[in-house]
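Support reply, case 0932

Customer input (verbatim):
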Amino acid sequence: MVGPERLHAARLQDGLRPGGTYRFVMRGPDGQDNPFHGVYREIVRNERIVFTAILDNLPGHELVTTVTFADEGARRS
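Our regenerated output:
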């Protein structure tokens, strides 16, 4: 799995459901691992996903991300 530019990610996941967990380990070009994990707080199909992210190297700091999906109509190729 490829993450942000020049970073590679390994992913472990307990399930895309409220209360489900995930864990990523991003490996930089220098070989350094940057692990983080979180919990899916809310999942509304075709509308919204809310999840947390905690960097293992920076405990005590929790990020909360909300992704909202919007129908933008039909796309033409």
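We compared this against your earlier run and they match. Two observations from our side: The beta strands are 8-13, 21-27, 33-44, 48-55, 62-68. Residues 39 and 65 are 11 Å apart (CA to CA). Please reopen the case if you see a mismatch on your end.
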